[in-house]
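Reading a protein record of the kind used here takes only a little practice. The record below shows the convention in full.

——
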Amino acid sequence: MLDESVYKKRIDRVQKHIENSSADFAFLIPAPSFQYLAGFRYQMQERLLALVIRKDDEPTIVSPAFEVSGHSAHTWIKDFLPWAEDENPYTKVTELVGTNKVVLLDDSIPLGVYWSLEKAMGGFKDSASITPLIDQMRISKSETEIDLMKKAGHIIDRAVSKAFVEAQLGMTEVDVKQIVQSEIRRQGASPTFAAVQFGENSALPHADAGSRELKNRDVILMDCGCSLEGYNTDMTRVGVVGEPTEEIRQVHSTVLLAVETAIENIRAGMACGAGDGVARRVIDDAGYGEYFTHRLGHGIGLEVHEPPYVVRGSSETLQTGMCHSIEPGIYLEGKFGIRIEDVVCIREDGPELLTFTSRDLIQLDL
Protein backbone atom coordinates (compact mmCIF):
# COMPACT_ATOMS: atom_id res chain seq x y z
CA MET A 1 0.00 0.00 0.00
CA LEU A 2 1.20 3.50 -0.84
CA ASP A 3 1.30 6.44 1.55
CA GLU A 4 -2.14 7.46 2.85
CA SER A 5 -1.73 10.98 1.45
CA VAL A 6 -1.58 9.55 -2.08
CA TYR A 7 -4.96 7.86 -1.69
CA LYS A 8 -6.53 10.94 -0.13
CA LYS A 9 -5.51 13.06 -3.12
CA ARG A 10 -7.07 10.49 -5.42
CA ILE A 11 -10.31 10.50 -3.43
CA ASP A 12 -10.35 14.32 -3.46
CA ARG A 13 -10.22 14.27 -7.25
CA VAL A 14 -13.07 11.75 -7.44
CA GLN A 15 -15.15 13.86 -5.04
CA LYS A 16 -14.63 16.96 -7.17
CA HIS A 17 -15.76 14.97 -10.21
CA ILE A 18 -18.88 13.81 -8.34
CA GLU A 19 -19.72 17.41 -7.53
CA ASN A 20 -19.00 18.68 -11.04
CA SER A 21 -21.14 15.87 -12.49
CA SER A 22 -24.09 16.75 -10.23
CA ALA A 23 -23.93 13.17 -8.93
CA ASP A 24 -24.53 11.97 -5.39
CA PHE A 25 -21.98 9.21 -4.98
CA ALA A 26 -19.60 6.80 -6.71
CA PHE A 27 -19.86 3.05 -6.23
CA LEU A 28 -17.03 0.60 -6.92
CA ILE A 29 -16.46 -3.08 -6.19
CA PRO A 30 -13.08 -4.88 -6.03
CA ALA A 31 -11.24 -4.36 -9.32
CA PRO A 32 -8.13 -2.35 -10.25
CA SER A 33 -9.90 0.99 -9.80
CA PHE A 34 -11.07 -0.10 -6.33
CA GLN A 35 -7.47 -0.98 -5.47
CA TYR A 36 -6.26 2.35 -6.87
CA LEU A 37 -8.50 4.20 -4.41
CA ALA A 38 -8.78 1.85 -1.41
CA GLY A 39 -5.25 0.46 -1.47
CA PHE A 40 -5.92 -3.27 -1.48
CA ARG A 41 -6.79 -6.05 -3.89
CA TYR A 42 -9.61 -8.51 -3.20
CA GLN A 43 -11.47 -11.15 -5.17
CA MET A 44 -15.14 -10.60 -4.37
CA GLN A 45 -17.36 -13.66 -4.50
CA GLU A 46 -21.08 -13.69 -3.65
CA ARG A 47 -20.84 -11.32 -0.67
CA LEU A 48 -20.83 -7.62 -1.52
CA LEU A 49 -17.72 -5.58 -0.78
CA ALA A 50 -17.97 -2.04 -2.11
CA LEU A 51 -16.37 1.38 -1.91
CA VAL A 52 -18.83 4.26 -1.60
CA ILE A 53 -17.53 7.78 -2.20
CA ARG A 54 -19.73 10.78 -1.44
CA LYS A 55 -18.75 14.32 -2.32
CA ASP A 56 -18.76 15.70 1.24
CA ASP A 57 -17.88 12.70 3.44
CA GLU A 58 -15.07 10.27 4.11
CA PRO A 59 -15.09 7.22 1.81
CA THR A 60 -16.86 4.16 3.20
CA ILE A 61 -16.27 0.46 2.62
CA VAL A 62 -19.39 -1.69 2.75
CA SER A 63 -18.24 -5.08 4.02
CA PRO A 64 -19.54 -8.34 5.44
CA ALA A 65 -19.40 -7.83 9.20
CA PHE A 66 -17.22 -10.87 9.83
CA GLU A 67 -14.61 -9.62 7.32
CA VAL A 68 -14.24 -6.04 8.59
CA SER A 69 -11.21 -6.81 10.77
CA GLY A 70 -9.37 -8.47 7.92
CA HIS A 71 -10.15 -5.76 5.38
CA SER A 72 -9.37 -2.89 7.75
CA ALA A 73 -5.81 -4.18 8.15
CA HIS A 74 -5.16 -3.68 4.43
CA THR A 75 -6.65 -0.26 3.71
CA TRP A 76 -6.15 3.32 4.80
CA ILE A 77 -9.93 3.84 4.90
CA LYS A 78 -11.32 3.95 8.43
CA ASP A 79 -15.07 4.13 7.83
CA PHE A 80 -16.71 0.72 7.42
CA LEU A 81 -20.39 -0.08 7.04
CA PRO A 82 -20.77 -3.73 8.11
CA TRP A 83 -23.67 -5.92 7.08
CA ALA A 84 -24.74 -9.14 8.75
CA GLU A 85 -25.38 -12.41 6.94
CA ASP A 86 -29.14 -12.01 7.31
CA GLU A 87 -29.15 -8.43 5.96
CA ASN A 88 -29.42 -7.14 2.40
CA PRO A 89 -26.13 -5.27 1.79
CA TYR A 90 -27.70 -3.12 -0.92
CA THR A 91 -30.30 -1.89 1.55
CA LYS A 92 -27.40 -0.92 3.82
CA VAL A 93 -25.99 1.17 0.96
CA THR A 94 -29.30 3.05 0.66
CA GLU A 95 -29.18 3.78 4.40
CA LEU A 96 -25.88 5.51 3.70
CA VAL A 97 -26.72 7.44 0.51
CA GLY A 98 -30.52 7.49 0.25
CA THR A 99 -32.75 6.42 -2.63
CA ASN A 100 -33.35 7.58 -6.19
CA LYS A 101 -29.90 9.15 -6.48
CA VAL A 102 -27.44 9.93 -9.27
CA VAL A 103 -24.68 7.32 -9.09
CA LEU A 104 -21.31 7.00 -10.83
CA LEU A 105 -20.39 3.35 -11.43
CA ASP A 106 -17.20 1.54 -12.35
CA ASP A 107 -17.47 -0.29 -15.68
CA SER A 108 -16.30 -3.54 -14.05
CA ILE A 109 -19.52 -3.90 -12.03
CA PRO A 110 -21.46 -7.04 -13.04
CA LEU A 111 -25.07 -6.70 -14.11
CA GLY A 112 -26.23 -8.61 -11.04
CA VAL A 113 -24.67 -6.02 -8.73
CA TYR A 114 -26.05 -3.17 -10.86
CA TRP A 115 -29.58 -4.56 -10.76
CA SER A 116 -29.43 -5.31 -7.02
CA LEU A 117 -28.29 -1.78 -6.21
CA GLU A 118 -30.85 -0.23 -8.56
CA LYS A 119 -33.66 -2.28 -7.01
CA ALA A 120 -32.67 -1.40 -3.44
CA MET A 121 -32.56 2.30 -4.34
CA GLY A 122 -35.97 2.26 -5.97
CA GLY A 123 -34.29 3.03 -9.27
CA PHE A 124 -31.49 5.43 -10.10
CA LYS A 125 -32.33 9.05 -10.77
CA ASP A 126 -29.49 8.74 -13.26
CA SER A 127 -26.25 6.79 -13.65
CA ALA A 128 -22.96 7.30 -15.47
CA SER A 129 -19.48 5.82 -15.58
CA ILE A 130 -16.67 6.84 -13.23
CA THR A 131 -14.21 4.70 -15.23
CA PRO A 132 -12.99 7.33 -17.75
CA LEU A 133 -11.92 9.61 -14.90
CA ILE A 134 -10.10 6.88 -12.97
CA ASP A 135 -8.47 5.52 -16.14
CA GLN A 136 -7.15 9.02 -16.83
CA MET A 137 -5.86 9.28 -13.25
CA ARG A 138 -4.16 5.88 -13.49
CA ILE A 139 -2.58 6.33 -16.91
CA SER A 140 0.44 8.38 -15.71
CA LYS A 141 2.32 6.73 -12.88
CA SER A 142 3.89 8.35 -9.83
CA GLU A 143 7.54 7.78 -8.98
CA THR A 144 6.47 5.38 -6.22
CA GLU A 145 4.44 3.31 -8.68
CA ILE A 146 7.29 3.33 -11.20
CA ASP A 147 9.73 2.18 -8.52
CA LEU A 148 7.50 -0.80 -7.70
CA MET A 149 7.36 -1.70 -11.39
CA LYS A 150 11.16 -1.49 -11.61
CA LYS A 151 11.48 -3.87 -8.68
CA ALA A 152 9.00 -6.24 -10.30
CA GLY A 153 11.06 -5.95 -13.50
CA HIS A 154 14.20 -7.10 -11.71
CA ILE A 155 12.28 -10.04 -10.25
CA ILE A 156 10.96 -11.20 -13.62
CA ASP A 157 14.44 -10.77 -15.12
CA ARG A 158 15.91 -13.15 -12.57
CA ALA A 159 13.05 -15.65 -12.84
CA VAL A 160 13.22 -15.91 -16.63
CA SER A 161 17.02 -16.09 -16.60
CA LYS A 162 16.86 -18.93 -14.08
CA ALA A 163 14.39 -20.83 -16.26
CA PHE A 164 16.67 -20.58 -19.30
CA VAL A 165 19.59 -21.87 -17.21
CA GLU A 166 17.63 -24.80 -15.76
CA ALA A 167 15.73 -25.87 -18.90
CA GLN A 168 16.62 -29.39 -20.06
CA LEU A 169 15.76 -31.57 -23.03
CA GLY A 170 12.58 -33.54 -22.34
CA MET A 171 11.13 -30.92 -19.99
CA THR A 172 7.63 -29.77 -20.88
CA GLU A 173 6.54 -26.18 -21.28
CA VAL A 174 4.67 -26.55 -17.98
CA ASP A 175 7.86 -27.76 -16.26
CA VAL A 176 9.71 -24.60 -17.30
CA LYS A 177 6.72 -22.42 -16.42
CA GLN A 178 6.87 -23.82 -12.89
CA ILE A 179 10.54 -22.81 -12.61
CA VAL A 180 9.62 -19.23 -13.51
CA GLN A 181 6.69 -19.01 -11.12
CA SER A 182 8.48 -20.68 -8.21
CA GLU A 183 11.35 -18.20 -8.51
CA ILE A 184 8.91 -15.27 -8.61
CA ARG A 185 7.30 -16.47 -5.38
CA ARG A 186 10.70 -17.05 -3.78
CA GLN A 187 11.52 -13.39 -4.41
CA GLY A 188 8.32 -12.23 -2.72
CA ALA A 189 6.23 -11.31 -5.76
CA SER A 190 3.09 -12.85 -7.25
CA PRO A 191 3.22 -14.63 -10.63
CA THR A 192 0.54 -13.39 -13.00
CA PHE A 193 1.21 -15.44 -16.14
CA ALA A 194 3.98 -17.41 -17.84
CA ALA A 195 3.58 -18.26 -21.51
CA VAL A 196 6.39 -20.75 -22.19
CA GLN A 197 6.37 -21.99 -25.78
CA PHE A 198 8.68 -24.44 -27.55
CA GLY A 199 9.34 -24.91 -31.25
CA GLU A 200 6.32 -24.42 -33.50
CA ASN A 201 4.25 -23.33 -30.48
CA SER A 202 6.32 -20.14 -30.29
CA ALA A 203 4.60 -19.01 -33.51
CA LEU A 204 1.31 -18.73 -31.58
CA PRO A 205 1.38 -15.26 -29.98
CA HIS A 206 -0.81 -16.13 -26.97
CA ALA A 207 -0.52 -19.89 -26.46
CA ASP A 208 -0.40 -21.20 -22.90
CA ALA A 209 2.24 -23.63 -21.65
CA GLY A 210 1.37 -27.25 -22.35
CA SER A 211 2.80 -30.76 -22.60
CA ARG A 212 5.14 -30.06 -25.54
CA GLU A 213 8.62 -31.38 -24.65
CA LEU A 214 11.83 -29.47 -25.33
CA LYS A 215 13.87 -30.82 -28.24
CA ASN A 216 17.14 -30.00 -29.93
CA ARG A 217 16.94 -26.99 -32.30
CA ASP A 218 13.75 -25.70 -30.64
CA VAL A 219 13.12 -22.00 -30.25
CA ILE A 220 12.07 -21.22 -26.66
CA LEU A 221 9.85 -18.17 -26.14
CA MET A 222 9.10 -17.04 -22.58
CA ASP A 223 6.57 -14.25 -22.05
CA CYS A 224 6.20 -13.88 -18.28
CA GLY A 225 4.89 -11.43 -15.73
CA CYS A 226 4.57 -10.82 -12.02
CA SER A 227 3.15 -8.21 -9.68
CA LEU A 228 4.63 -6.55 -6.63
CA GLU A 229 2.21 -4.81 -4.25
CA GLY A 230 -0.29 -4.88 -7.10
CA TYR A 231 1.95 -3.33 -9.78
CA ASN A 232 2.81 -5.45 -12.80
CA THR A 233 5.65 -6.15 -15.16
CA ASP A 234 5.77 -8.09 -18.43
CA MET A 235 8.80 -9.34 -20.36
CA THR A 236 9.53 -11.67 -23.28
CA ARG A 237 12.87 -13.25 -24.15
CA VAL A 238 13.83 -15.91 -26.69
CA GLY A 239 16.38 -18.71 -26.80
CA VAL A 240 17.24 -21.67 -28.98
CA VAL A 241 18.53 -25.15 -28.19
CA GLY A 242 21.79 -25.69 -30.03
CA GLU A 243 23.06 -23.70 -32.99
CA PRO A 244 20.38 -21.36 -34.39
CA THR A 245 19.58 -21.55 -38.09
CA GLU A 246 20.27 -18.57 -40.30
CA GLU A 247 16.52 -17.93 -40.52
CA ILE A 248 16.20 -17.81 -36.72
CA ARG A 249 19.15 -15.41 -36.53
CA GLN A 250 17.66 -13.19 -39.23
CA VAL A 251 14.21 -13.02 -37.66
CA HIS A 252 15.63 -12.38 -34.19
CA SER A 253 17.91 -9.63 -35.51
CA THR A 254 14.94 -7.97 -37.22
CA VAL A 255 12.78 -8.03 -34.10
CA LEU A 256 15.69 -6.82 -31.97
CA LEU A 257 16.25 -3.88 -34.32
CA ALA A 258 12.53 -3.05 -34.15
CA VAL A 259 12.64 -2.96 -30.33
CA GLU A 260 15.80 -0.86 -30.24
CA THR A 261 14.46 1.55 -32.87
CA ALA A 262 11.24 2.02 -30.90
CA ILE A 263 13.12 2.68 -27.65
CA GLU A 264 15.38 5.19 -29.40
CA ASN A 265 12.58 7.10 -31.14
CA ILE A 266 9.36 6.95 -29.10
CA ARG A 267 8.86 10.22 -27.25
CA ALA A 268 6.32 12.09 -25.14
CA GLY A 269 3.92 13.95 -27.42
CA MET A 270 3.95 11.23 -30.07
CA ALA A 271 0.67 9.59 -31.06
CA CYS A 272 0.42 5.93 -30.06
CA GLY A 273 -0.22 5.02 -33.70
CA ALA A 274 3.01 6.72 -34.72
CA GLY A 275 4.87 4.83 -31.99
CA ASP A 276 3.58 1.56 -33.39
CA GLY A 277 4.75 2.64 -36.83
CA VAL A 278 8.33 3.24 -35.68
CA ALA A 279 8.83 -0.47 -34.98
CA ARG A 280 6.51 -1.75 -37.70
CA ARG A 281 8.48 -0.04 -40.46
CA VAL A 282 11.61 -1.94 -39.45
CA ILE A 283 9.79 -5.25 -39.81
CA ASP A 284 8.06 -4.16 -43.02
CA ASP A 285 11.38 -3.12 -44.55
CA ALA A 286 12.86 -6.54 -43.73
CA GLY A 287 10.03 -8.26 -45.62
CA TYR A 288 8.24 -9.70 -42.58
CA GLY A 289 5.41 -7.18 -42.25
CA GLU A 290 2.60 -9.70 -42.75
CA TYR A 291 3.97 -11.79 -39.88
CA PHE A 292 3.79 -8.98 -37.29
CA THR A 293 0.15 -9.55 -36.44
CA HIS A 294 -0.53 -7.50 -33.30
CA ARG A 295 -0.05 -4.03 -31.82
CA LEU A 296 3.34 -2.84 -30.61
CA GLY A 297 2.36 -2.50 -26.97
CA HIS A 298 -0.09 -2.02 -24.13
CA GLY A 299 -0.14 0.08 -21.01
CA ILE A 300 0.71 -1.61 -17.73
CA GLY A 301 0.31 -0.83 -14.05
CA LEU A 302 -2.33 -2.26 -11.72
CA GLU A 303 -3.41 -4.34 -14.72
CA VAL A 304 -1.15 -6.22 -17.11
CA HIS A 305 -3.10 -4.71 -20.01
CA GLU A 306 -4.50 -1.20 -19.58
CA PRO A 307 -4.38 2.11 -21.48
CA PRO A 308 -2.54 3.41 -23.38
CA TYR A 309 -2.53 0.97 -26.31
CA VAL A 310 0.31 1.55 -28.77
CA VAL A 311 -1.53 0.44 -31.88
CA ARG A 312 -1.92 1.50 -35.50
CA GLY A 313 -4.46 4.26 -36.00
CA SER A 314 -4.50 5.46 -32.38
CA SER A 315 -4.34 9.23 -31.95
CA GLU A 316 -3.89 9.01 -28.18
CA THR A 317 -0.81 10.97 -27.18
CA LEU A 318 1.99 9.44 -25.14
CA GLN A 319 2.64 11.50 -22.00
CA THR A 320 5.37 11.50 -19.39
CA GLY A 321 4.68 8.94 -16.67
CA MET A 322 2.86 6.54 -18.97
CA CYS A 323 4.21 2.99 -18.79
CA HIS A 324 3.75 0.54 -21.64
CA SER A 325 5.25 -2.50 -23.30
CA ILE A 326 7.26 -2.53 -26.52
CA GLU A 327 6.86 -6.01 -28.00
CA PRO A 328 7.20 -6.48 -31.74
CA GLY A 329 7.10 -10.04 -33.02
CA ILE A 330 7.40 -12.15 -36.15
CA TYR A 331 5.46 -15.44 -36.26
CA LEU A 332 6.16 -18.07 -38.93
CA GLU A 333 3.32 -20.54 -38.52
CA GLY A 334 4.39 -24.16 -38.16
CA LYS A 335 8.03 -23.16 -37.66
CA PHE A 336 8.77 -20.66 -34.88
CA GLY A 337 8.04 -17.18 -33.58
CA ILE A 338 10.25 -14.45 -32.14
CA ARG A 339 8.97 -11.71 -29.84
CA ILE A 340 11.09 -9.44 -27.65
CA GLU A 341 9.31 -7.39 -25.00
CA ASP A 342 10.34 -4.72 -22.56
CA VAL A 343 8.34 -2.35 -20.37
CA VAL A 344 9.22 1.34 -20.51
CA CYS A 345 8.16 4.54 -18.79
CA ILE A 346 7.85 7.66 -20.93
CA ARG A 347 10.17 10.41 -19.69
CA GLU A 348 10.89 13.89 -21.05
CA ASP A 349 14.05 12.64 -22.78
CA GLY A 350 12.66 9.30 -23.98
CA PRO A 351 11.64 5.90 -22.62
CA GLU A 352 13.17 4.58 -19.40
CA LEU A 353 13.50 0.81 -19.25
CA LEU A 354 11.66 -0.99 -16.45
CA THR A 355 12.93 -4.44 -17.53
CA PHE A 356 16.64 -5.01 -17.80
CA THR A 357 17.84 -8.43 -19.06
CA SER A 358 19.85 -8.67 -22.29
CA ARG A 359 17.71 -9.05 -25.42
CA ASP A 360 20.30 -11.21 -27.17
CA LEU A 361 19.24 -14.60 -28.53
CA ILE A 362 20.01 -17.09 -25.74
CA GLN A 363 21.78 -20.23 -26.95
CA LEU A 364 21.30 -23.36 -24.83
CA ASP A 365 23.91 -26.07 -25.30
CA LEU A 366 22.08 -29.10 -23.89
The mean pLDDT is 97. The two ends are 44 Å apart (CA to CA). Residues 94 and 358 are 55 Å apart (CA to CA). DSSP finds ten helices and 17 strands in the chain.
